[in-house]
Specification:
Blueprint: H1 20-29, H2 36-47, E1 52-56, H3 62-73, E2 77-81, H4 88-91, E3 93-95, H5 97-110, H6 114-119, E4 133-135, H7 137-142, E5 151-155, H8 162-174, E6 176-179, E7 183-186, E8 192-197, H9 205-209, E9 212-216, H10 221-231, H11 237-251, H12 261-273, H13 281-287, H14 295-303, H15 306-319
Parallel strand pairs: 1-8, 1-9, 2-5, 5-8
Antiparallel strand pairs: 3-4, 6-7
Helix pairs in contact: 1-2, 10-11, 10-12, 11-15
The protein binds adenosine-5'-triphosphate (ATP) and magnesium ion (MG).
Magnesium ion binds at residues 62-63, 155, 196.
Amino acid sequence: MTLPIASGNTPGAHESFDSVDATQAALAARHYIADRGLATAIYLALKRHKPLLLEGEPGVGKTEVARVLAESLGTTLIRLQCYEGIDQATAVYEWNYARQLLYIRMLEARKGDPAVVASEPGTIADVFGPEFLIRRPLLQAVDASHARPPVLLIDELDRSDAEFEAYLLELLSDYAITIPELGTLRAETPPIIVLTSNRTRDIHDALRRRCLYYWIEYPTLEKEYAIVLTRVPEAPQTLARQVVAFAQALRGEDLFKAPGVAETLDWLSALLTLGQVELTEAAARDTLGALLKYQDDIAKVTGGNLLAKLVEKVRASLRG
Ligand SMILES: Nc1ncnc2c1ncn2[C@@H]1O[C@H](COP(=O)(O)OP(=O)(O)OP(=O)(O)O)[C@@H](O)[C@H]1O
Ligand SMILES: [Mg+2]
């Protein structure tokens, strides 16, 4: 299968997703470095029209998959950010009560004018028609009006509650949404669905079963270096290598929250902003807040001689 693909922001560029290698290359062209396992999951999700459930620690690139996919496919990204208490009215649809009310008032006002009623017949039942519907992200995703199937990102699903998760089952297996007053709306071409979770709670088996699943690990040193090179190409090589090695070493320490890739990139940018060309203990100490987000973790690293040890270790490993 070759998906109808045109590039989002590079006119003329076409990115193919018709093999695992091509998928990996298409993502890399948009500065996303995917392992073969992730590229395979994405390729299969596209080819088999299956939703893709991505889990992993914060900042390992889950959300970014959906963004980059939409860009490479030249299609719209529809994003639903989940939160505790998210419901149908914010996620799926809502009736436009104000508009319905106005319409009913108009009907009442017109009653006395048979000429108008004859030319524009209307009944109370019309208020449950499509024009009174406010389409929220999930309904937008099954809307038939898209030229290309959009990418639907259901982000941080673990923040929502079990009822909302149950609601998603129909969408994930049939690409359909039922609105009691209108019937079942089904996407002509299924949207590409990416769900993410940080595993703050378990996602139910019924939902998992409907998806392809992939766990995004913290990257290896080589992968993280490749990410840094593609995302911050202006960084001096030595500094980039040192920063990556430091972040990798930190993940081996007993911290409350180890840094994700997002933090590595942020830290590198902070050091660049300060004009650093190499990692020094002083610069690392001053900028550690870009990498670690909890005072306990910062205290642990800066308290004893851990910081000096880690900086020396990464400098030595690059000399060797
Ligand atoms: N494999 C990768 N290739 C390129 N960039 C990456 C990769 N992984 C992460 N990044 C970078 O890290 C940033 C954070 O990624 P993203 O927001 O997707 O993480 P996340 O897993 O969704 O985190 P959270 O759980 O906190 O939402 C991205 O903007 C991107 O720049
Ligand atoms: Mg995310």
